[in-house]
Design brief:
Strand order of the largest sheet: 4-3-2-1-5
Number of helices: 11
Number of domains: 2
Radius of gyration: 21 Å
Distance between the termini: 15 Å
Number of strands: 8
Largest sheet: 5 strands, antiparallel
Helix content: 40-55%
Strand content: 5-15%
Structural class: alpha+beta
Order of helices and strands: HHHHEEEEHEHEEEHHHHH
């Protein structure tokens, strides 16, 4: 594990979220409830129509770019891509609002109203990308599991059933039920294990791979300086030899274990990263993410 700069020596003793993690649901306090009531609640129909219009634009772009997911045509399985693209489009539109509803949203934000992309577990059933507007939950990809549902759903956040992933156990339970996955410990790519301590195998559903490279889960691993990552690496099951061979076959040599003791190397990587305060080093995290992306492209790509 490479050394990292100690840009912030403050240590977290456990997963107590004193500041929002990337894509974490923001608390709906009195200010947010008041702003939601004043700006948004009486305009739900207008918001619904506006986001449906944005979906038309996003669908025209993505449907031509994205292949079928799990053998099913767009928009099935494309919640993340649709939400990300629509949020980017919305951000561009709100810089110079033109329509009445855009001006309302801009005013809402100017008064301190929260507008953010969120990710978590919906109704303890599956992972979900959505948008938060103060006290409102806005799912702009509501038809990506059941294509017969309306594309956009707007609910009070408290009634949506959306919660943050609490820990690795919560992630594993959701992945097992939603993806039909079995989750193993990442003893195969030790340098990535502090941030990506899990490997999911979901035959016929998703390609086997490291979990989870979303911004929220990476930040969650950093929050306790890789303590829960290390615990899972120590106690979790090893990937079966056949699946391990498949995964390593497409992995650059410098990311593979140096010895046959991948478990020990992964645990050592967590401990070294903790000692060096890597959780607070954005450059170190970015380097590991780039290594992860390189692992997806296979051994022929230079580091």
């Amino acid at each position: 594990m490479e050394a990292c700069n100690d840009t912030d020596s403050r240590r977290q003793s456990g997963p107590v979220m004193t500041t929002l993690l990337p894509q974490q649901i923001a608390p709906v306090d009195t200010q947010q409830r008041t702003l939601t009531d004043a700006y948004l609640l009486e305009r739900i129909d207008a918001l619904q129509a506006y986001f449906l219009d944005l979906r038309v634009t996003v669908d025209a772009l993505l449907a031509a770019q994205l292949p079928a997911a799990a053998g099913k045509a767009y928009p099935y399985g494309r919640c993340e891509e649709i939400t990300r693209e629509l949020y980017a489009l919305l951000s561009t539109r709100l810089r110079q609002p033109e329509t009445p509803i855009e001006q309302v949203l801009r005013g809402f934000m100017a008064q301190g109203g929260i507008v953010r992309s969120i990710w978590g577990v919906l109704r303890e059933q599956y992972f979900q990308n959505a948008l938060q507007f103060g006290g409102l939950y806005v799912d702009v990809a509501n038809d990506t599991v059941d294509v017969n549902k309306p594309p956009v759903e707007i609910l009070p956040l408290a009634a949506s059933g959306m919660t943050a992933v609490r820990d690795l156990a919560h992630f594993r339970r959701t992945a097992e039920s939603y993806w039909g996955a079995t989750i193993y410990a990442n003893h195969l790519l030790p340098s990535l294990a502090p941030l990506l301590p899990m490997v999911s195998v979901s035959p016929g559903r998703l390609q086997a791979g490291l979990q989870s490279a979303c911004d929220y889960m990476i930040a969650l691993m950093c929050l306790d300086s890789f303590e829960q990552a290390e615990a899972w690496l120590r106690d979790g099951p090893a990937l079966p030899d056949e699946e391990a061979a498949k995964l390593l076959a497409d992995t650059p040599a410098d990311l593979r274990p140096w010895t046959a003791q991948g478990l020990n190397e992964s645990i050592i990587a967590c401990r070294r990263a903790r000692i060096a305060h890597c959780a607070a080093d954005a450059q170190w995290r970015q380097a590991r993410v780039l290594d992860y992306l390189r692992s997806l492209r296979g051994p022929s790509v230079a580091g």
